[in-house]
Amino acid sequence: MASILISKTLSLSIECAPRRAYEFVSNPENLPKWATAFCRAVRKSDSEWIVETPDGQVGIQFAAQNNFGVFDHHVTVKPGVELLIPMRVVPNRSGSDINFTLFQSPDTSDAKFAQDAGLVERDLRNLKKALEK
Prior knowledge:
By secondary structure, this protein is of the alpha+beta class.
């Protein structure tokens, strides 16, 4: 029987119009500008984006452009192993909240999960700096 995973949703408010925030963050070419804990470089392949990470290459497929602020993506960490990364831009008056849900896989320790959450928080702060320029 399948069980649910432990999850943590990290959120950060940004003084940036939701449409502008969405356009920036949903463009994979901008990943190296803000997701520095994860992305060293990015390039387009046939049906996905290839990201150079500290641990090697991973494939990413993004949700289609939409008017709902959804930029979920699937990360293929190795053949047959795909992670769902739910992300949203939520309007917050004239600004935006960015929500990122992190799941703890069964083979990830609590300490590693906390470390990963810290890296996501750092990347969200980088995103805030990039968008509030």
